[in-house]
Amino acid sequence: MSALRLDRLLANLGYGSRREVQSLVRAGAVVLDGTTLTDSDMKIALAPDLPARLSVDGMPLDPLPGLTLMLHKPLGMTCSHKEAGPLVYDALPERWRRREPAISTVGRLDKETSGLLLMTDDGDLLHRIISPKRHVAKRYVATLARPLRGDEGALFAAGTLMLEGENKPLAPAVLEPLSATAARLIITEGRYHQVRRMFAAVGNHVDALHRDRIGGLELPAGLAPGGTRIMTAAEIAAIFA
User: Which residues form the catalytic set?
Assistant: First the structure.
């Protein structure tokens, strides 16, 4: 089990600079197992139950590094730290935006796509999910401007469809028509605007796009747009199921 100096631990979790954290400790705001801590240099073991045992200003410690979240991304939010307008990071508590290692999105959804978006400070997990070698499937529901022709499923499944401006065909994808102008599409790649470009390649246009599943993990029905929640170990495992 690793350990970290108290001031560095709290600074890394976004509670302030190390100097600000030292002031918190001097003010008696940090309590571990019922005992007020007075030494900001003391080493703290990073046990899984630490957030239940350590409090800051009377509130339980924020989750330790290894934090993975799901966000029901609403329309209009951008997966960026820099662009103007609402950002997916705005859905996080302010302190979490200052954490180190930083919380990052696992892949992206464009501004006009809603649905399941994962966020984590675990770089290894992030790369496992997005690695092309893992073939983690993503399922989308697309609402289309024009009726399906009927041959899209075979074209997408063939593994020969070439997107405009690219020289490598897409991996096979699975299309499930839902109505004349709506379909589910399961892909295992993450090329730029891939779903929209796939339908454009067969003469259609995506009016609305929503991602409802990553791997074996579905967007919970009870998670409202803009809502976030910390994922369980079982939910993370479900991604790779």
Answer: 110
